[in-house]
Amino acid sequence: MDNQGFEMYGESIQKSSNGTEWPRKEERNSKWSLMKVFLVCLLACVITTVIGVLVLSLVYVNHVPFIRETVIKDDGTSSPKPEEKDVDIKFQFLNHVTNSKVHKYPGGEIQWARYRNDVNEYQSDEEMVFGRSINNHRSKMTFGTLRIKSKGLRAPHWHFNANEHGYLAQGSAWIGVIGADNSVVTTYNVTAGQVIFFPRNTVHWVKNVGSEDCLFLLFFTTHEELQTLDVDDAFFSTPEDIAARALRPQGGVNFIRTFKKQEEDQAINLPPNLNELVKNATYVQSPDNLVWQFFYDLKGSAEYPFPGGVFQWARYRINGTGLNEKEKIFSESLNKHENTLTLATLRIFSNGLGQPHFHFNANEMGYVISGCGQVGVILSGVTSNFNIGIGDVIFFPVGTQHYIKSVCDEDLLLILAYSTGNQLETLRMDDYFHGTADHILAQLFFKHQDEFKKFPRPAKK
Ligand SMILES: *[C@@H]1O[C@H](CO)[C@@H](O)[C@H](O)[C@H]1NC(C)=O
Ligand SMILES: *[C@@H]1O[C@H](CO)[C@@H](O)[C@H](O)[C@H]1NC(C)=O
Ligand SMILES: *[C@@H]1O[C@H](CO)[C@@H](O)[C@H](O)[C@H]1NC(C)=O
What we know:
The protein has 2 domains: 91-271 and 283-291, Jelly Rolls (Sandwich), CATH 2.60.120; 309-454, Jelly Rolls, CATH 2.60.120.10. It contains 12 helices and 25 strands.
């Protein structure tokens, strides 16, 4: 408001002083004229402010949380307040997850690209547009980055409403998964380039056993709020006598009472006196038939090249087609659970193109690990082309045509997730162009039928 008022004031002054027609004899009156101009401007200022306040309060009544957010955001910068309708439509498909709120814990941090029930939890309108987009499209997707410091521990926990698929971009970790029934415990080491899978409601933990940070890129199969319970929170929420009877420790309930809940949230835990607490850590690896249910060596898997780059897949294959024995265990494990994801790394060579295509049976979400690119999305009625770089999350609702082009000197590397546990169904632009009869194309594009012979047949994939 202040800015707007100031601009009007300045403009009026300029107009008056440009009014060169003022007669000379009135020069001695110019002070008074200036005063008048000033008063008029002041009045204009006041009126503008009043109107502005009125408009704002009207909007405020209708969009309380929205206004609250933009006001907060304006604290830091002088940029004008965006209206929701002013947010670039690209943010339906793009989220700068690196700009999102950093949830810090003693042992690391988490950032999210997700839907929120409470709009006040969005940091920006762009984030809100993205959150609403993945929810409105029933995407079955939530994305998060999980950074764990050396020796840090993502506390044992489970998710009520989602399977979790993760890709370790950096570092090495020791993981535990506790299944239902006989509570079989599976533990295994994971290194960069490998994939983990935690079915809904399995208790799992992640311990950084390397010297550098671990960076996990995580996809959860829900477009609602992710619901999670940490084991320590479950413990401290259980009455002492109930816990004592369930766990039957020596010393009974008195021993249970010696446990003290930490003030800080221990979601990612790293006690300062860890070396005193832990004397004998061993990192056991369970047998293959257990481990490969929850683990896949994506980096070491078969490469599927295409003209602009190469895919590698962590997915279900009917009859294990093209998979080795260990990979078949993973494939069958995915197939046993509902709503699993297909994961892939996509490397697009410098200047390479992942040509326009769409999927019949899956939403797609991706994260840029390295490089930079240009993306185009066409949804019915919405078209958007935009640039992507490291740390960006992209989202393509099922059926939307999209392409990805690598635009810098290095390869563009993405981790992609598709919301199908079945085989991904895809149609590419050259396929549907070639598949359409040439006289239909001629009629459609007002072009002679012969001209369509200039399009070469698509290479068989
Ligand atoms: C360390 O732990 C392992 C497995 O829990 C156990 O077999 C071993 O005896 C322990 N060693 C010491 C010195 O406590
Ligand atoms: C798992 O990693 C830890 C820490 O690097 C190492 O001590 C252990 O030997 C590894 N286990 C296996 C089975 O590779
Ligand atoms: C899978 O195996 C079954 C029985 O062995 C066979 O009938 C079927 O054709 C196979 N499917 C594919 C896609 O290979």
